[in-house]
Specification:
318 residues; mainly alpha; two-stranded antiparallel ribbon
Length: 318
């Protein structure tokens, strides 16, 4: 009996290595999809930011924008010595508080109502976005008529209760209240839909367990909904803070003046920057104001984030 050895198997063939040009294309192709975004961001975001910082150290006038004279920190010193800057800064904070706090509270309440199974929920959610889709100019002009002194609807309603007409455009708090109403009307529905999306991401098992334990709807809202909505609330607060710091269209169109009223009673930082650049033609000073606003936004966003992290750390330690 003879034994025959099996024939040796053929060695496995290695896959041919791609050519260097093909390997380069494979490595570069993912970045080519991102290139349009970064190109647009560099052209319309990064370059204006850097150029504004560059211009802020020069004396540049709108009539002779090609002539620049080095001024160093002079534009920033002139801003901080101007009392109208501090008025605009104070108005920015007060308008932000008057518009942001009621806006977020109303949005949270509306989102909580829309989270239930109501008839026509899709219709109500669509209606929520209509103020946001409305033009800023159209909304502001309508509210300016509503808050008119002689023929405004608001003063007419107040007269039915025996209240004398209010001059909404000359008083400090009255004009800021009127401008805040425009902001609240435009952005409440938008934030309500953001809160609604956050509520729908909360597991339903938590509500069922709370209901089994005998928790009322109010207790479910405070002990289940609000803790689950904390990241969404932080996001909404940060975005509202940025929007309040950049408030421009509503106060500009409310009376049609960049001064923000007779005594600058509702002039924001955005209006102050516009007035310096396009009314007084000081482009270098306007660029400095833009950078002050940018740093202020970074400070406020960082403060909000720090407070949110500390609150989360405290609750985790419990």
């Amino acid at each position: 009996m003879t034994l025959t050895a099996p024939a040796p198997s053929a060695p496995a063939r290695r896959a041919p290595r791609p050519a260097p040009a093909r390997r380069f294309l494979r490595a570069v192709s993912p970045y080519s999809y991102l290139a349009p975004f970064f190109t647009l961001f560099a052209a319309f975001g990064l370059f204006p930011l850097i150029y504004t910082a560059y211009i802020s150290f020069y004396r540049v006038e709108l009539q002779t924008s090609g002539d620049k004279a080095w001024r160093g920190w002079g534009n920033y010193v002139a801003i901080f010595e101007d009392p109208f800057f501090w008025t605009a800064l104070r108005n920015t904070f007060t308008l932000g508080a008057l518009s942001t706090i009621p806006q977020l509270m109303l949005a949270l309440g509306l989102a909580h109502l829309l989270n239930y199974r109501l008839r026509g929920r899709t219709f109500f959610r669509t209606v929520m976005l209509l103020p946001y889709a409305t033009s800023v100019a159209a909304a502001t002009l309508v509210f300016a008529q509503l808050f008119g002194h002689d023929f405004g609807l608001v003063n007419y309603v107040l007269s039915l209760f025996g209240i004398s007409p209010v001059d909404w455009q000359t008083g400090t708090w009255t004009s800021q209240t009127a401008v805040s109403c425009i902001v609240i009307w435009r952005w409440t529905g938008y934030n309500a839909l953001i809160f609604l999306a956050g509520m729908q991401s909360i597991p339903g098992d938590l509500y069922e367990a709370a209901e089994v334990d005998g928790a009322s709807r109010w207790r479910q809202f405070f002990h289940v909904t609000l803790p689950g909505l904390r990241p969404t609330i932080v996001f909404a607060v940060i975005m509202s803070t940025i929007g309040a710091t950049q408030l421009f269209g509503e106060p500009l169109l409310f009376e049609g003046s960049a001064s923000g009223g007779i005594s600058h009673q509702y002039q924001t930082l955005g209006l102050y920057m516009y007035e310096q650049g396009w009314s007084f033609f000081h482009l270098g000073r306007a660029a400095a104001i833009a950078w002050v606003m940018f740093l202020l936004i970074l400070l406020l966003v960082g403060l909000n984030t720090l407070l949110a992290r500390r609150r989360t750390a405290k609750e985790t330690a419990r």
